[in-house]
Amino acid sequence: MVNPVIEVKDVSFSYGDLSILENVSLTVEHGDYLAVLGPNGGGKSTLLKLILGLIKPTSGTVLVLGEPAGHTGGRIGYLPQHTHVSTSFPVSVLEAVHMGSVRPGLGGSAGLARTSQELDKARKALERVDMLQYADRSLSGLSGGQKQRVFIARALVSDPELLLLDEPTASVDSASRNSLFSLLVELNKDMTVLMVSHDISALASGVKSVACVNRDLHFHAAPEITRDMYNLSYGDDEHCCPVDLVTHGDLPHRVFPMHPHPDEAGKEDDE
């Protein structure tokens, strides 16, 4: 029996007296493309840090690829929410991607040989994200969307089984956002993908399942959420339906299953 890629079981996490996550459970199977949605401050990034093993749960367990979180080596690729690059530090696109695979403690001819192998891997990673033609360009001269592709390539150098992304489209324009979503769909053909986002339009990105996080967690094995899940994660206003459809390019995507709007329900009652 194949272990789930991610298994979060009865996990709670607190910063001192401040409760961030309460009794959260989540199972992510091989080949899934999961969007983790929720408001800012709801615990999405904390959940991601728990999966990465960067922090430990107050209670509960987190297993990743059958191992305790933080013990998976290069089997996970990670794109953090903030990746700052100083314009005063002249680094090429290829060098930036290669940094994702450099290992400390290598020296002599063995170190040089490894560097050559890793540079080849970096080129292949750039090719996967359609950025190989920019390999010798300065990273600081790229657009926001192009930089995100480079940073995704850096996360791919180790040929990960699981790709984790924290708000990958937060700082890019709508055209770049849709292009990145299409890229993630392609990458999902070879690996499991988990994307954290506060933007509900991510549901139109080609994801296969969704988890709404706001201290607790509600999972739905389809790229839509129920009204109850939305209310629990984003708040409840009984007088409005905040969104029915979002779009990816020109294609509409239904967020909620078919349901009557409050004003329509009232008209039906009057009739």
Descriptive key words:
271 residues, alpha/beta, Rossmann fold, 6-stranded mixed β-sheet, 12 strands, 25% strand, globular
State the separation between the terminal residues, measured CA to CA. Answer: 56 Å
Flag low-confidence runs.
Answer: 104-113, 237-271
CATH topology: Rossmann fold
Question: Hey, roughly how much beta strand do the residues contain?
Answer: 25-35%
Quaternary assembly: single chain
User: Tally the helices: what do you get?
Assistant: 7
By CATH, the architecture is named 3-Layer(aba) Sandwich
How are helices and strands ordered from N to C? EEEHEEEHHHEHEEEHEEH
Strand order of the largest sheet: 6-7-8-3-9-10
Could you give a short account of the major beta sheet? Answer: 6 strands, mixed
Level-1 CATH class name = Alpha Beta
Structural class: alpha/beta
DSSP E strands, number: 12
Mean pLDDT: 81
Shape assignment: globular
Describe the model.
The chain has one domain (6-234): Rossmann fold, CATH 3.40.50. The strands form 3 sheets. Strands 6-7-8-3-9-10 form a 6-stranded mixed β-sheet, sandwiched between helices. It has helices spanning 44-52, 93-98, 108-128, 144-156, 174-187, 227-234, 262-270, and strands spanning 6-15, 18-28, 33-37, 59-64, 67-68, 76-79, 162-166, 192-197, 209-214, 216-220, 245-248, 251-254. The protein is α/β, with parallel strands linked by helices.
